[in-house]
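Tokens help. Consider this.
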Amino acid sequence: MRNDSIAGIHAQKIRFGEKLGYGLGDFASNLVWGAVGSFMVFFYTDVAGIAAAAIGSVMLVSRIFDGFSDIAMGAIMDRTKSRHGKARPWMLWLAVPYGISAVLLFTVPPFGPTGKIIYAFITYNLATTIIYTAINIPYGALNSLITQDQYQRSMLNIFRMVMAMVGGLFINMATIPLVTAMGGGAGGWQKTFIAFGASGAVFFLITFFATEERVKPARADKAVVPLKDGLAALKLNKPWMLMVVLGVFTFIGQGLGGANIYYAQYILGDASLMSIMMMSMLVPLILGLFIMAPFIKKFGKRNVALVGTVVGVGGTCVMIAAPHNVAAIIVGMVVKGLGMAPLAGTMFAMIADTIEYGEWKSGVRTEGLVYSAASFGGKVGSGIGVGLVGWILAWGGYAAGATVQTPGAILAIKSMFLYIPLAVSAATIVLLSMYKLDKQYPQIVEELHRRNGGAPAK
């Protein structure tokens, strides 16, 4: 990077169109990822007719395998050389394959039980382990390549998470009605995801055209880092390690969202209530993201995320107090959604900040590897969460399609919706309490600029 550009990049003001364009990438992501979290287990058990225990095993094995693909993709991205940069090109190259993989994921082949399990394993890994990873790792790392300014990164992350939540809300509100409108059954699911897949491809292309990569390594001779050196540098990056563990717990909670439709159907007595439940959580979450910026600027990312998680615990406690009362569930989901907003609005920005910490500590900068390894933790957590849905349903004796479930199945559903998320939130509070990088970050960036002979950031 030229010396006269360093301070300017640090103070770069990102235009609204670029922030929105960046955010639309996570809307595209959630057309698949949100559907996987909310409907994948239900689709496999109740539409494709695959045993719940088999699905739990398929998903956990796939997520662990996916974690290693994250590391590989991070290394590939760090070595990508293109006139468009090293993160943005992947959105151009993979937008269409991403859309096609979504259709294959929600297609039921005319196979027997074993054939369906094999098909599920192949298409699940094609969509989430290979294509989603190859487009989402660069997408996540793009935040750190657009700017080094902490506040601007937080704003980019807020736009990202607003669009992610809008995508999640859209998926949860529109999927079942669209499947019904498309004729229901396996055909309805496939047609619905033809529409979702095509939309996701378009939104990723918008992200590609709307954004710009500006940030380069402080040392030009470290622009390409050998994989062994990058992995060695991660071992020195304690804030990053903390964020990986936090990602595991956060995405366990997200993976458990697959239990929501079972809770609506068998605890509250009406599967259609899932849409209201999700709207009750996601609308406050989105509104919370809109008002988050001044609090982040005044109190720091860690502090607002910590307070928000405590608020979210309160929402879960409301639901535990009256688990069969629809009004109490809705109130609890509203409070939980508000409490989730701070962590949603800061988590990926905190991961971005660990890139500068790692460069300061080890002398090497590896955006792709940092994001890929953090994504590894998130995907393992998601795999555990989604796997738990299948395993716990099987443990409780869940019978797919049954009008009435056994007491064991009811307890299993309640545990996934109420008690395990409460434990996850408690772990999140402990981990956030240990994160200290917010205070160190400005001095770290100043030092990085001085190493390159640049003017201090203002």
